[in-house]
Design brief:
- There is one protein chain.
- Helix 3 packs antiparallel against helix 4 (about 70-90) and helix 7 crosses helix 8 (about 180-195).
- This protein has a two-stranded antiparallel ribbon with strand order 1-2.
- The protein is built from nine helices and two strands, in the order αααααααββαα.
- It has one domain (about 5-195).
- The protein is mostly helical.
- The protein has helices at about 5-15, 25-30, 35-60, 70-90, 95-100, 110-120, 125-155, 180-195, 220-225, and strands at about 160, 160-165.
Length: about 230
């Protein structure tokens, strides 16, 4: 069982170990469906439903799944929730379901969800597992919304279909195309890296040693100096 408080368990996935912005997981849907805020919200909700449901169920049945087949069992549980959310989305919002295409069924193989089931839900009680899943889902949703907002505003000049840029704005079409996903994610990661490291001291440059001492282990180097 984790020794962290519920707040710490939740915030871990939101910021400290954000699945996309820190762990660089779940990049397939992050890059593919964030060309609009609407698609980003739909994928975030679908993923949140799956990770919350699967983590809760894994926590409840962890003692009944043999260790030899635990990964297969977790995938089966995740696939069940993915099937449910795919059917619901197809019935309630068919246009969004069509826009997301195969990326909803591909939630099954999202290593972020399987990773939380294996690393946390299978080792903890129900409530901490739900908090952990909720934090991870919130962190994933934040990343998707950031990506979707930047790409839709710059690529279409709109936010949720509402015009927010001046009418003479020339859309950056590349932002709603696949390369725009890589550019946006790279820009966000670069900005966060600068933010996290701005208060840290720069690494002191290490003076390289001359050949042949530079390729020797420290112990060998000391022995060589003693012999000399």
């Amino acid at each position: 069982m984790t020794d962290k408080s519920g707040r710490e368990v939740f915030l871990r996935g939101v910021w400290e170990e954000n699945p996309v912005l820190v762990q660089i997981l779940g990049l397939c849907p992050t890059l593919a469906v964030t060309n609009s805020v609407e698609n980003a919200i739909a994928m975030a909700l679908a993923t949140a439903f799956v990770i919350l449901g699967s983590s809760a169920l894994v926590s409840l049945v962890k003692d009944y799944i043999p260790s030899q087949v635990r990964m297969s069992g977790y995938i089966l549980i995740i696939a069940t929730f993915v099937t449910v959310v795919d059917l619901i989305m197809g019935a309630v919002a068919p246009s969004i379901s069509k826009a997301l295409g195969a990326f909803v069924p591909l939630i099954v193989v999202n290593c972020m969800i399987l990773g939380r089931a294996e690393a946390f839900a299978s080792k903890n009680r129900l409530l901490p597992s739900i908090l952990d899943a909720a934090g991870t889902a919130a962190g994933f949703s934040i990343a998707l919304l950031l990506m979707g907002s930047f790409r839709e505003i710059l690529g279409n000049g709109t936010f949720l279909g509402i015009q927010v840029m001046p009418h003479n704005w020339e859309p950056w079409v590349i932002m709603i195309l696949p390369p725009g996903g890589f550019l946006t994610l790279g820009g966000i990661l670069m900005g966060l890296s600068w933010w996290w490291q701005r208060g840290e001291k720069k690494d002191v440059a290490v003076k390289p040693r001359r050949w042949p001492n530079g390729v020797r282990a420290p112990e060998e180097e000391r022995r060589s100096e003693m012999v000399a």
